[in-house]
Amino acid sequence: MEKYDHKSIEKKWQTAWEQAGMYVADENSTKPKKYVLDMFPYPSGDGLHLGHVENYTATCIYSRYLRMKGFNVMHPIGWDAFGLPAENYAIKTGTHPDVSTHQNIKNFTAQMKSLGVSSDWTREIDTSSPEYYRWTQWFFLLLYKNGLAYKKKAKVNWCESCKTVLANEQAENGVCERCKNEVIQKDLEQWFFKITDYADDLIDDLSSVDWPSSTIAAQRNWIGRSEGVEFNMSVVGTSESIAVYTTRIDTVFGMTYVVLAPEHPLVQKLSSSIKNTAEVNAYIDVTKKKTELERTELAKEKTGVKLEGVEAINPFTKQPVPVFIGDYVLGNYGTGAVMAVPAHDERDFEFAKKYNLPIVQVIEPVLTQMTGSAKFREDEPVQQSHGVIVIIKHWSEDKYLGLRWPTAGWGTFLTGGIDEGFTPEQTALKEIHEETGYKKAVIVRNLGVIHSKYYHEPKKLNRFGHAPTFYVELQNGEQDEVSAEETSKHEAVWLTRGELDTFLTAESHQQALKLLDATLYTDSGILTCSSEFDGLTSEEAREKMAVWLEKEGLGAKKVNYRLRDWLVSRQRYWGAPIPIIYCDDCGEVAVPEENLPVLLPTDVDFRPTGESPLKYSKTFNDVVCPKCSKPARREADTMDTFVCSSWYYFRFADPHNAKEFASRETIEKWLPVDMYMGGAEHTVLHLMYARFFTKVLKKLGYINFDEPFAKLRHQGMILAEDGRKMSKSLGNVINPNTIIEEFGADTLRLHEMFLGPLEDMKAWNSTTIVGPRRFLERVWKLTEKVSADGDEKATDASLHKTIKKVGDDIEKFGFNTAISSLMILVNDLEKAEKISRNTFETLLILLAPFAPHLTEELWHEIGNTESVHLAQWPIYDASKCVESETTVAIQVNGKLRDTMVVTTGTSDDEIIRLGLDLPNIQKWVLGKEIKKTIVVKGKLLSIVVGE
Ligand code: ANZ
Ligand code: ZN
């Protein structure tokens, strides 16, 4: 047999598979279908990178596995071809985007094929081709006709360097996603899609998908559904009132002022009452220059101006509060006005400190101990208890008194139960003396009541404690003797602030420490200083207060969303033209469907002017009104490329259909997507938009499902060998081509899958790649052992366990662990003198999804004529997979030092390795010469070390 020469094998089989149409999805198959999809790539000039390789290898393994399991798999590929980089390249070099894009697609195609991916190339789509964007335009019209696409003048994010408008999602943190330049606000006529109509569905349907929880959370946050209350506050001496929106009506008794957005219309209406108009107007002017992101940034300093002469009435207390304008309140969210509660909201707290406004605490913290021996035990009865928490400060040092509870393992401040007839203050002082002996203590601050649910380990029961909390300073170190009974319970220690942070085990005591710094608590709790609502929980109060407001006719419950309509128009060339015509007589007119596509013209000057390049194309604007036939002009903006990718997964079901975006029949056959795979960076944008399109189609009766992607997984980023992001400027980019050239595609595939769990971030490693390569060479050599009289019994258990493990792991995308179990199997097979043909074939089938070329070659080498990739996935015999365990005793120099439990059949090597790693054994062998190791099968490991 010849040496393993990846070059000749890989080319050979790639060609053979393509000719045989091996991976073409079968429209007429009766097998159950699986639709496995990658987030289709943008064909950039840089070519395929290792992140692509990771993505496409993973779905390729999965698709190959599913085919062998008897599924009719559709695993298509296409190109997200419109977009800014091609246009920027055109501006720089004069190469038309159409030319450069197609050059890039060619390059990508060759690279992907050389990787051995099992994609169905007959379904290839290209979003920049008229056959495709004709349907992108059709979708625009579908939305337009259903009132879901509209034009309006809007403050938009504008990037001066890209000369274009950006969606909010592309302008996060106030910088352009592409060029990282600052984004400014500009008033322009823009097209929007009304995604906000679907806000509830977009949240609610998340419960039906199998997606990473972080991705689901990101979708939820972006939509930002907020359930609260809107109510009116009358302005003293006027007939005006201020409507405020709050999610925390339970804190309303703690409102000490009101803040209006500077652009709030009331500011102008109240101008005759405002005494400091000049100051107010100056502030409004400054605000106008800021972006929304600058205004809402949590870290920025909160500023504002008091409206002198204006007061509003808190309807609950009937008391007036001052009114401010402040730019941290946005004009376009809620009502553009907030009731400020500095004791329970962080932004209000900062604002109040800066302008010296009163801070009134109305929510007492409620904490539930979640960790440690005091973890609250949900199912056990609860005892109410009343006791104080006392923070004691040292008389001369910057230290605080902590109590260490040796048996419970706790760290707390001083505590003590409140006895009949004692006030909390008296209790605090009494406890200090009894438990610490200190005689001169002064209560400096009352920090309010802290409630906490915890398990009282010494008393063995759940407690719901209610603790008045005090900050006390010792005047000097004068001290009486403390009873032995007290000192035996806990030990007193003086600790710095830093030490306290790790010392305190009780969450309520950590909360006490926080309150010492700032009278701020932002969670729910129990109401205080709130008149008839005192003692209610925040949840109860929110209900009751909303009911009261409604009864008084002052307000009602209200739901708000952060989600804004999707801005889709771009003042750029390389995108799908928006199919709208403007006529002086008829106004905005939709291009009739039969006139689609509106072709992207070629007589265009690329140099950016800030206006859409299409505006000055002669051919493009040579158009008449579809209604009245008078000369007219076309909409010159193109669509955001996210529009193209919002529906491409439908097109794969029916990629060549010239009459519909996809036929109902093919959609019903293939969709929804069973497994969707791509980078986590698209979690907000692409997924949200694609889900929106799907929901619109469902609503309009085109399809009968709600969510496009049933299952979603993300691959982790592949970092450079130095642990940094791969980038041209750092010179640390690895080109997959050179790896394929040197080691072969099979090795590259194995190596990337073996670097670590798929979803983790992993650094490339050019040293360990020889491992997978050697592994493949060993499989290659195993062929020589295949024999008609090979012994199956010796390796049978190992084989069946591997069948089970590899299958289970592929199902859950655990490719790295699947590979290690294959390595163990190969180890075992190498030990056998001869291997049966059946055993070897099973190994090849298991390995085929990972190393498709090598396995195909060997499969034929041993006499098969059909492809290994058409073989059936083996079925394991469960009785051979039972993992039984045995206990191994470990001796060092004849003395028993430890035992360990291993699965039966663990190899001697493995037992030695595991045994030596045990901490109890390390103690005896560290730094000594290991002279001998003996394993008595499954019973004993004996280690002999030198002195
Ligand atoms: C009083 C309050 C007390 C609030 C408290 C919070 C905590 P989400 O959940 O994001 O919807 N708010 C309302 N409108 C605002 C605007 N236009 N600009 C800036 N902030 C605004 O947040 C709702 C909360 O954000 C509201 O509840 C309001 O502050 C603030 F202890 O009201 B809250
Ligand atoms: Zn007209």
Furnish the topology, listing elements before pairings.
Layout (H helix, E strand, L loop, with lengths): L5 H15 L12 E6 L11 H19 L3 E3 L1 E4 L4 H10 L3 H18 L5 E7 L3 H16 L3 E11 L4 E3 L16 E11 L5 H6 L8 H11 L2 E9 L6 E6 L10 E4 L4 H5 L7 H12 L3 H5 L7 E10 L6 E7 L10 E4 L5 H9 L8 E6 L13 E12 L6 E6 L4 E3 L1 E4 L6 H13 L4 E16 L4 E14 L9 H6 L1 E5 L1 H7 L3 H11 L7 E3 L10 H15 L2 E6 L5 E2 L1 E2 L9 E4 L3 E4 L27 H4 L1 E2 L6 E4 L3 E2 L1 H4 L3 H4 L12 H7 L4 E3 L7 H15 L12 E2 L4 E2 L16 H8 L1 H10 L7 E2 L6 H13 L10 H19 L3 H17 L5 H11 L4 H10 L16 H4 L3 E8 L2 E9 L4 H10 L1 H7 L4 E7 L3 E6 L2
Parallel strand pairs: 1-2, 1-31, 3-4, 10-12, 14-19, 15-20, 31-32, 33-34, 35-38
Antiparallel strand pairs: 5-6, 5-7, 7-24, 8-9, 8-23, 10-13, 11-12, 14-22, 15-18, 16-17, 16-21, 19-20, 25-30, 26-27, 26-29, 28-29, 35-36, 37-38
Helix pairs in contact: 1-28, 3-4, 22-23, 23-24, 24-26, 25-26, 25-27, 27-28
Zinc ion binds next to loops.
